[in-house]
Amino acid sequence: MRRARHNVFFLLFFFHGVVISNRNSCSAQPYLDQFWYNAISVTRADGFKDYAPQDWHQIPCPNVEDCLAYTDKWEMGRNWSLEETDICQHCPAEAESEVCGLHHQSPIDLKREYGFEPGTHPNANECIDLHWMKYEDSTCTLDQLENAEAFTIERHALRISQPIEVYDNITQDTDGLPDGVRLMCRVSGIGSRFGRIDYSKGFSDWWYLSHMDIHVPSEHTQEGRRYDAEIQLAHFYSVSAWNEMGTVSVFMQAYDDAPVYSYLETAICQWRRYESQVRAECGLDPISQPYPGCTTVRRDRERRRHRQRNLRRDQMTDEEKQRERKRKRFQNAAQVILHNERHKHDRDHTDIKILLDKADAEPAEDKDWDAWIEHQSKQMNEEYRLYHSLKQRDFGGNHTDDLHQKFRQLQEWNNVTWFNYWPMLGARTEYYFRYEGTSEKIESMLTHRPYSLSPLSLSSSIGTQTIPPCHGKRIPSSRRNTNHWRVMKDPIRIHPRQLEELKRLLADRIAPRGSLVNECGNDTAAKVKRDPTDPQTILAVDTARPLMYTSKHHFKTFCECKDWQSKWAEDREWCSIQNINDRFYEQPYNFETNGF
For residue 432, with 0-12 CB atoms within 10 Å meaning exposed, 13-18 middle and 19 or more buried, which class applies? Predict the structure, then answer.
């Protein structure tokens, strides 16, 4: 599906990115306002504010590099300015009128009616995609991700980054900044390769994986149903001129009969490892709540190791500290979107590049995908049977921590081969919603067909990021600064014990040592509800931006059976339901349910 580029040894792509500044920023004062998900904006003791979702557009930010609230400066870039009035517009779905007019804010409620044949339903939109989104893994192993501290607990989400490192060996370093970044995970004889995914129709090149975030509960909804969690896989496009991003979302839902999901289990243990590290560096007690299957952190050993690390840091010279800050300046490719644009007029500035290795440009893998997906499906079915056999035979039909632990040991998850696109396997479907937005300016262009854009590119998405600053400027005759959403139709089935731990990790987040706000204290953007009689019991956690309303000017569609045949046997069985209303609403998933 992709063209080989045999004459290129490696590719340099220039991105308009940003980094989060620290106290040594050239500006006089960092802006320590933050965003959160509580209903009311609150002024903190330090004089700065935590802004509620309806007020995100009010976050002051005269210098984006010094704005702590702009966690990911992903969508800002060429032709974007802070004076734009539609940054993080609050366009609530429950509003009595369309208070924002036309907009392209996310998230939204997704409707199956988009997938009806055009002409059979007033809201039907034809899916123009012709094939599945093929995904190919990166070179990052679990050990490499762990060593690079790629599993982090952010204020707004649980994150897994594709770790990047700086290099200084391409041009003379005259501005004190890294010349470029590249994927940290390298394999002898191969080099490195970002994970990559193949969008159909309108995109002739690969999208590369930057990171994934898990929000609790889901931000998008389907037919009004909000799921327990949502995984968002963020990608950057290989054609840098467009300054685009693409996000693939996968819901997760806890079911009492679901076994613990192996890849999520591995990620949970890594986040607990990160949590233990942060607490040790802050001199705090270890995690008090156990989780079955995760390696117990030995308090004395961990504290001794982190005490030595902190001592080394304190003894570093100013030059060594500057090199250390430079090395850690970027967490992932998503944070390399604004910096070049921000500093392009600086004297002696050298663009920061994202280096794509030779492997990134190679043709698609020559692999029997049908057989590979069939194997994945059978393996998950075997795990399901094993779990229920153990549950009934040895544990009286109840899920206990002992069952959790035994199931994990039998599956040998400590030796699992990591797969960076694991959410795409867990969903067990190829079918998805894609929602596209068009502003009035682009809408008017649809009749003029400028020669520089194909009709397909004009129907590309203009959704937004769901955290500040939300999105970039709408640019006529262009799809720059846009977020192309794909949301899978089926949720990953996880066990309730896993969901409980995701909530706890977000609610109990500790700000790492060196944080500008709440250093070594509880610091989460989540709206948390605890049991008043037992504060350790978490009743609810919310890191979801409120739903936004949509209009006919958003191109929303649902790609399903009629558009291509899936490789998943579960999809094909679902597609055998001939009555489309039954398929869409009565039996909407590839597993047995009674509606949504």
Answer: buried
Strands (E), 349-395: 353-356
3-state secondary structure of 359: helix
Which pTM value belongs to this model? 0.84
How far, in Å, CA of 378 to CA of 538, rounded? 36
The alpha carbon of 265 is separated from its chain's Cα centroid by a whole number of angstroms, namely 18
The closest of 577, 585, 590, 483 to 225, measured between CA atoms, is 585
**Is the per-residue pLDDT at 84 higher than 90?**
no
Would you call the peptide bond into 468 cis, given omega within 30 degrees of 0 as the criterion? Answer: no
Classify 330 as helix, strand or coil: coil
Count Cβ atoms below 10 Å from residue 378 Cβ, excluding itself: 11
Three-state SS for 539? strand
The half-sphere exposure of 232 on its side-chain side, counting CA atoms within 13 A, is 28
Alpha carbons within 13 A on the beta-carbon side of 277: 16
SS (H, E, C) 476-522: CCCCCCCEEEEEECCCEEECHHHHHHHHHHHHCCECCCCCCCCCCCE
Q: In a 3-state reduction of DSSP, which class is residue 368?
A: coil
Q: What is the largest CA-CA distance in the chain?
A: 72
Per 3-state DSSP, what percentage of the chain is helix, strand, and coil (rounded to 5)?
Answer: 25, 20, 55
DSSP states of 118-170: TTSSTT-------S--EEE--S--HHHHHHTT-EEE-SS-EEEE--EEEE--S
Please, how many CA atoms are within 13 Å of residue 488, restricted to the half-sphere of its CB? 28
Residues 6+ apart with CB under 8 A from 33: 48, 49, 50, 51, 59, 60, 67, 68, 69
Cα gap 343→414, rounded to integer Å: 45
Burial class from Cβ neighbours inside 10 Å (0-12, 13-18, 19+) for residue 119 reads exposed
| Distance in angstroms (rounded) separating the CA atoms of residues 218 and 490 | 13
Residue 536's SS3 state is strand
Amino acid at residue number 56: W
500-552: pLDDT as tens digits: 999 999 999 999 998 999 999 999 999 999 999 998 899 999 999 999 998 66
For residue 511, list its beta bridge partners: none
Task: List the single range of 85-94, 202-211, 254-263 with lowest mean pLDDT.
Answer: 85-94
- Structure tokens of 3? 């063209």
Residue 388 to residue 464: CA distance in whole angstroms: 41
Report the Cα–Cα distance between both ends of the chain, in Å, rounded: 35
Residues near 392 by Cβ (< 8 Å), separated by ≥ 6? Answer: none
Gap between the Cα atoms of 488 and 491, Å rounded? 8
Query: To which residue do tokens 């995109």 refer?
Result: 203
pLDDT in tens, 353-399: 777 888 888 889 999 999 999 999 999 999 999 999 999 999 999 99
CB-based contacts of 399: which residues, under 8 Å, 6+ apart?
256, 391, 495, 497
